[in-house]
Amino acid sequence: MRFLFGLLFGFAAVCQAGSIHWSHGSWDEEAPAGKLLSENEGWWGDCVLTGVEYSYQSQPSNPPDRHKGESGVFGRRLLDGRFGGDWYVPVGQNRGPLVVVFDFKRPCVFNEVDIYATRSNPHSFVIEVAANMEEDGWQNVYEKPLDKEDSSTFYRAKMPESCHGRYLRLSFKGTGITWLDEVLVWGEAEVSETYPEHIRPVLVPELPPGKRYSLPGIASSVYSMDEFQAWRQSLGDMSGLPALWASIASAQPNKPVLPENEIINQPLVLDMAQNESECRYLTLSNPGEKEIRLRLSSRTEAGEALQIVLLGGGVLPVNRPKRKLSSEEMLRLFVTGNLPPDAEPEGDMQVLPFFAPGQQLGRSLMKRHLANAEALLDFPEVLLPPGGSMVLMLKAISANCPPGSYGGSLIAASEDGRNSVLPLAINVLPLPLPLPELWVRAWGTGTRQFPFESRKRMLADALSVRQLGATIWSGLPEAGGKAEMFGQSGETTFYHVMMKPAKYIHLGHGSKIGADDLDEKAILEIKDEARKMAAHVNAGLGLNYNQWFVELWDEPGEGNAALYGALARIIKEADANIRIYMNPLFWRPGFPPQELILEHLKEYYNQVIDISVPITNLVGDNLTTRELWSRPRQVRAHYLHPARRAGRGMAWKSFRHGFNGWGYYCYYAPRGNPWDISTWTSLGYSYQMVFPGPEGPITTPIYETMREGWEDYRLLYALQENNKTELLDELKRESSRRNADLQSLRARALEAFR
User: Fold this and answer.
1) Residue 327 — pLDDT band, cuts 50, 70, 90?
2) Looking at the DSSP assignment, which residues form a beta bridge with residue 612?
């Protein structure tokens, strides 16, 4: 973990500009005061879910507030969390001012209004507030006059003290056509019986009388009251404990959580190296007939060199709607939280996000998105209903810990002074895992929060990707950005850059042009861009050629592999040191014959491709294309999506084939609200390994699985360095079998260093 200290020290010297970073790229010293009242998408912190609606007193028509280009479907564009990009982002009218009225459905105190207008400069605006909609009730609270020298695209309007009202009216006028992108309103708002919050909680199906959930919303965890009473009687004296700990094999219980006596509060044994993380899953159950509040804590004998972290598991829906929603249905879903009956997804909820203490979303968002929010709102203080349970992740982290056997415990303490204790026995072996130089790519690096994130959150985001074992960041390390933070967090970093000119890349990706369509002008243009890029990266940013690489387009196949090779040769002619990446796919659907793939690639692949990352299905000792992937070069790797399909086996396969890398899609690529699968238009949570939070990424089981794969590779590398050849060969052979138990193989590898 030594790179953590370098990250914290190094970045403090880099970015002194402010404590928050706005989504458009600027820094500020202070965040807006109060909570978000306007429910803009992409904010994960404190908010009041007001149920805000808005209407126009002057109708925008250029473009109108519509969902994309669909006539008659309101777009809610001013609150969609988007301020730049295509024509479906702003609203506009030919002659200003554009007048919009926001109804927050309750008495509010307005502290600040933030406005994005990236296309209308210079501009002027007036903000008024009112307790009712009577025209004489409006009070002018802020005015920005026109300043022709001001080209700002973002403006923070801080309200006067005691700025009260239910309604807020913005009159906004740009120069020429008036365009407005996004409006954010911060402050406080009443939440009471008269004005309840617009939570729209996750729907937990009701159970018939005499049935209970162990975990809310998880059907497989349901038990009958007769089963519960029989279980309580079987506990004997343990029924008097405030809660019961039990180990489980995975994060997803597949039966009622009524643990047997033999596993309750039994010692948990962990074997680990001196510098790694190990995870185990536990349940904590309330054996009583009343809800109970517990304070969870941990202790070890090793001090700071061995950290024990408990994370609380959140329950949420994981299946997309059964059918694609219309634009109108999507809007209704956003406003009401209701899906059409024929679109309700099938399948169970799951335990996916695991919250470390202090990682929770804003309390209102927790209640909206999680079926067991009440258990987690104050974590590590938890609230368990009668007979209810929760899933916890125990994470042991050794940071250059001296070898030895260490005791410890997990404690659940009730308010009446009772404790339930789970003993820990942690054996740290005399093995510091080596850090070989690896090329590990997790697509979609970096989570996001709109409209700003703290410097602490940005650091956590970069570090989360690094602790996964990843060494690739998409984008260059410009000063103060996450790419720079990521680069400072580890000894090995490769920066991924898309090649230019973009027009040839887009045409090539779509197989719209071929190699024969590249005339002399195009060739000169491509060479010029390659030289400019190399000059900017090497001289401007101080990187060397081994630290960055270019990609032309994703997943080449039969229709564009020849052009990929032609462009790669042109780039190499311009600058032979530029590293070129390729991830061949050749999907038809289905894969063509190996001989055909070889025919497409053999003329150039081993000459100009420096970073070879074919889809894992094309990699095998007995396949014809082996002569492509096995040839020595800077990087030999393979990739797969989604990561869940191969899990930690990706790293084992890389080691078996002598590769120095692997990749998987993806780390974070939500297709809708990352906390609400019902809004997704494609894919699923297999393509999101973390959830975004106000303090940084929130882990999931698949994240931990992929991190374990990285540590497995390092363990195998340690066996190789220590000439434990016979065991290494056995492990490589056994890991290639279908459904190999990689955790057991890891244990055998560790045993060699005991």
Assistant:
1) low
2) 582, 636
- pLDDT, tens only, 455-487: 999 999 999 999 999 999 999 998 889 999 999
Average pLDDT over every residue of 691-708: 96
Q: Is the pLDDT of residue 329 over 70?
A: no
Spatial distance between the Cα atoms of 33 and 270, rounded to a whole number of angstroms: 45
Encoded tokens for 335: 């406003």
Distances in Å between the Cα of 159 and the Cα atoms of 67, 107, 124, 589 are 31, 16, 16, 58
Of 238, 210, 207, the closest CA to residue 220 belongs to 207
Q: What is the pLDDT of residues 113-123, one digit of tens each?
A: 999 999 878 89
Q: What is the mean pLDDT of the chain?
A: 92
Structural contact between residues 429 and 750, judged by C-beta atoms closer than 8 angstroms: yes
pLDDT digits 0-9 by tens, 212-259? 999 999 999 999 999 999 999 999 999 999 999 999 999 999 999 999
Residue partners of 738: CB distance under 8 A and separation at least 6: none
Return all residues near 688 (Cβ < 8 A) that are at least 6 apart. Answer: 666, 668, 669, 670, 674, 700
Q: Which residues of 64-82 are buried (b: 16+ CB within 10 A; e: fewer)?
A: bbbbeeeeebbbbbbbbbb
Q: Going by C-beta distance under 8 Å and a sequence separation of 6 or more, which residues neighbour residue 462? A: 7, 446, 482, 485, 486, 489
Give the list of residues 6+ apart from residue 558 with CB closer than 8 angstroms, or none: 586, 588, 592, 596, 600
Q: Say which residue the tokens 């038990």 belong to.
A: 223
User: What's the start-to-end Cα distance of the chain, in Å?
Assistant: 22
Spatial strand order in the sheet of 696-699: 244-248, 277-285, 389-398, 306-317, 349-355, 696-699, 690-693
Residue 1 clears pLDDT 50, i.e. is over it: no
Count of beta carbons in the 10 Å neighbourhood of residue 246: 21
Cα distances (angstroms) measured from residue 105 to each of 168, 197, 332, 336: 11, 10, 18, 14
List domains and CATH numbers for the chain. Answer: 34-189 (2.60.120.260), 214-428 (2.60.40.10), 439-700 (3.20.20)
Strand-pair partners of 281: 248, 393
* Cis-peptide into 386, omega within 30 deg: no
CA distance 699 to 690: 5
Q: Answer whether residue 3 shows pLDDT above 60.
A: no
Structure tokens at 460: 């956590």
User: CA dist 382 to 246, 313, 370, Å?
Assistant: 17, 11, 14
Strand pairing category for 661-664 and 419-428: unpaired
Tokens of 358: 């202090």
Among the ranges given (131-135, 401-405, 508-512, 741-745), the one the predictor scored with the smallest mean pLDDT = 131-135
| Gap between the Cα atoms of 20 and 458, Å rounded | 9
Phi, psi angle pair for 319, to nearest 5°: -110, 135
Query: What residues have CB less than 8 Å from 116, skipping those under 6 apart?
Result: 24, 83, 153, 154, 180, 181, 182, 183, 451
**Whether 646 contacts 616, CB under 8 Å:** yes
Percent of the chain having pLDDT more than 90? Answer: 83
Average pLDDT over residues 62-86: 89
Taken as a whole, the chain contains a residue count of: 754
Q: Which helix (H) or strand (E) holds 228?
A: helix 225-235
Q: State the amino acid at position 288 in one-letter form.
A: G
Handedness of CA 344, 348, 349, 350 (dihedral sign): negative
Strands (DSSP E) contained in 286-388 are 292-300, 306-317, 349-355, 381-384
Q: Which two tokens stand for residue 350?
A: 């799951």
CA distances from 291 to 242, 255, 354, 383, 416 (A): 10, 21, 22, 7, 13
Question: Which two structure tokens, joined as six digits, stand for 262?
Answer: 């033999």
